[in-house]
Structure formats: structure tokens, C-alpha cells
Amino acid sequence: xxxxxxxxxxxxxxxxxxxxxxxxxxxxxxxxxxxxxxxxxxxxxxxxxxxxxxxxxxxxxxxxxxxxxxxxxxxxxxxxxxxxxxxxxxxxxxxxxxxxxxxxxxxxxxxxxxxxxxxxxxxxxxxxxxxxxxxxxxxxxxxxxxxxxxxxxxxxxxxxxxxxxxxxxxxxxxxxxxxxxxxxxxxxxxxxxxxxxxxxxxxxxxxxxxxxxxxxxxxxxxxxxxxxxxxxxxxxxxxxxxxxxxxxxxxxxxxxxxxxxxxxxxxxxxxxxxxxxxxxxxxxxxxxxxxxxxxxxxxxxxx
Length: 303
Prior knowledge:
It is globular and about 80 Å long. It is an alpha+beta fold. It has a four-stranded mixed sheet with strand order 3-4-7-8. The protein has a two-stranded antiparallel ribbon with strand order 1-2. The protein is built from twelve helices and ten strands. The protein has helices at residues 16-29, 39-51, 56-59, 68-76, 82-93, 118-131, 140-144, 153-161, 182-186, 202-221, 269-273, 286-302; strands at residues 109-111, 114-116, 162-168, 173-180, 188-193, 196-201, 232-240, 247-257, 278-279, 282-283. Helix 2 crosses helix 6, helix 4 runs antiparallel to helix 5 (82-93) and helix 6 packs antiparallel against helix 10.
């Protein structure tokens, strides 16, 4: 699904395929053990997942998380009570935003005579939505033919190169694996920021997004039982030449984990991961990788 109410944004897939992916990721977070949830809570969670992005229909990307309830009211006014609709809408709405949207929900409510742990349900939805990304969400044909709006290409490129994004609950980890070709590695993409439109290498966006995912893990951990918590994010970035299926640059691996006394300042990826993101004394930024690859081509041509 794409947003047409804002012609500057071309969203990656938000269709029923995305909903299925969110359900799949939530199931993986629960390790297929649903005993922490009642059947009534599972019903709430599934409905909330189905409507969490439906607000795009009303006014596009901005504020979409607040409008899923409108959609639910229209299709379910006789099947679900008003108080149930309100709580499901609150759970769905908490999947977006940074002003502690889950913390404002009730820890435990009695709805229609049954207990509902809305914070837990919202945390599972939000984390499942974070993990529900990858190549199937990218408009790959349009991306390859440069038919996506300039400021949206980076989001599709990120999804396109994300091969797997899986929770491994036996070790309380999340595994993120990427595969970049040479063109994607060397290219810069436009991205909207608070300072306006900036240019960014895809590798640097991967660093930013992996930090965001880890931040989401820490937020998620506040609201779930210990056995559902995630303490580590393992990232692998492969550089494979299209057609040849050979590595054109050495694989990058790094690990982000919660350790030591908490630091209130949000560190950058290089402070967190140190030497694992250094090669030849330099940090593995998109610019430094580009310089290395261009130099390598020139050196080969001069031989």
C-alpha cells in the first residue's frame, strides 16, 4: 500500500501481506507459546494488528496511528462493543510515536468481565511491526527503474536489502541480515531530516535503523515478562556482486547489546560497537567503503 494523499511519500508495502508478517513476528516473539495471553487478549491483539496501519486511508502517513479506530468502528459497530473498540484502538495506536505511547495505557483493565493487559499487547504489536520488514515490502521493480519519489527511495532500498529480520527467543536475540550489491553500496540516497533533505549511504542508514531497532527492543522490554525480553541485536551485512555471486567487500558483522550501567545519552553505532566496525584504522562508514571500492577499481584498471 502507498500513500497518495501525500505525493512526496511512496510507502513500502502496508497491505495484508504486511499484516501477515506482523502476526508471524509476534508469534516468533512469543516462541509459539501463547500462555502469557488469554484467548480474549489474543483476539484483541489480532484485531489491533489488522487495523494498526489502516489510518493511512484517511489522511496519509501523518497521524495514521490515531485513525485505525475510525476504520474499526465502521466495519465492526455491531460485532464489538464500544468499550472493546476503544481499548483495541488504543493498543493499535501505540505502535507509533516516541512520547511513551505504551506507558499511557492501563497495566491491567477489566473489559467485558475479562482481564486485558493492554501494555503487553501494545508492546508485542509494536515490536512485531518493527520486525516486519524485508524484501517483500519493497517495490523492487520501481526501485530498479528509478520510478519511486526521490525522498522515498531509501526506505525501499533498505527493505530490499534486508534478507532476514528474526527474533531468536532461545537466546533473547534478534538477528538482522543484509545483502547489498555494488550499486546500492556506492549510491547515496535522499532522506528527509529535521535539517531538510540530506544525502546518505545505505550502509549508514542500516547503522541508524539498527540503533532504532535496539532502542525499540529496550522500550519493548519495559512491558513484557522476562522470558519475552530481547537483550541483543546481531547484524550481518553481506556485499555480493550480482551475476557473479562473489563477495566484492568483506562482510561486516556487529553486535548491539545492553550492558553496564545505563547511559542516558544515546550513543552512535561506532561508540557502541567499536573495533567491529573498524577496518584499516577507519570506521566503516558508507563514504569510507565507497572510497575503498572506487580505489580498488582504479588500482585494477592500472594493472
